């Protein structure tokens, strides 16, 4: 008959305990020594720590190349993202803002339809647009302008395009707008001889 | 007071050994060497063969990268390796595997008149008689009894290890214990 009890019978446990107490037999000492010596000899090498493994990986040429490539790419991206915007591109948006505020000044100039010589307009414009002596407040106020994105500066017309636009305005008789454009262009390209270039362009 | 290493499980010790801690194996070996050796000696009834399988089992464990699978304990896993090695040895040498005999427990049931405490106390303590009584058991009953005795395995673990239903394991153990009680008590004077 099959006994389906889950809990062991105390009498059965006593029998097992009786056997445990009175059973002899040990593996020979030589067998113990052989097995333990084999276990020690063939024990896997301890795994190095995380930093040690990283350092070992760095010493392999394959990983050296990989790390160098990643570092190089990261450096290039960092340089591209953090490179300062050229001064010319920074000046243009500022002059655009200022040209609007300076419009009354220019409007106050003689309303002569003939184009005024650049030699006379430029000093006025320079005086009007010349930055005040640098003060901490002013430099702080200028900071947002300096942060303008490069994409905004790229959208501005080139020198050649600006000159052509001035010629077109003059030909159309809109000298006031032409003078404003010229002032703005002079602000952007202070080292350029704009009247001479205008003259050359007109001759062409 | 037990030191921390004594409370570390067998599975953790094996993992430590796999990670290069040689001392963990010594603890693991000390815990199980005696039980495994006695199990093999009693099951095979040959000391030389038991030593060979014992050595083979431990070397297999040393050189293997595997761990006990699923919910199996290290102890079950170790005794299963040893059992498989012994069966392999029997096959290799053309010995009929007695553990695979189909055995009808009902045919071997004999009246059990040894359940009284008085009779239990008079069990023989003679080493030779204990061993002879074990060898008198049918092989599959002896295996279950030895796994319980030396492996200290629970019945479900024995069922999983031997691949037989739990109820069969229970009945084998029951019949083995009844027969051992009878054999060891028979000739003791009242």
UniProtKB/TrEMBL annotation, chain A:
Protein name: Uncharacterized protein
Source organism: Pseudomonas fluorescens
Automatic annotation (TrEMBL), chain B:
Pfam families assigned to the protein according to its UniProt record, in alphabetical order: Sigma70_r2, Sigma70_r4_2
Molecular functions (GO terms): DNA binding; sigma factor activity
One example of a Gene Ontology biological process annotation: DNA-templated transcription initiation
Domain RNA polymerase sigma-70 region: from-to ranges: 28-94
Keyword Transcription regulation: yes
InterPro entries: RNA_pol_sigma-70-like, RNA_pol_sigma-70_dom, RNA_pol_sigma70_r2, RNA_pol_sigma70_r4_t2, RNA_pol_sigma_r2, RNA_pol_sigma_r3/r4-like, WH-like_DNA-bd_sf
Keywords: DNA-binding, Sigma factor, Transcription, Transcription regulation
Domain RNA polymerase sigma factor 70 region 4 type: 129-176
NCBIfam families referenced in this protein's UniProt entry, alphabetically: PRK12513.1, sigma70-ECF
Family classification: Belongs to the sigma-70 factor family. ECF subfamily.
Name used for this protein in its record: RNA polymerase subunit sigma
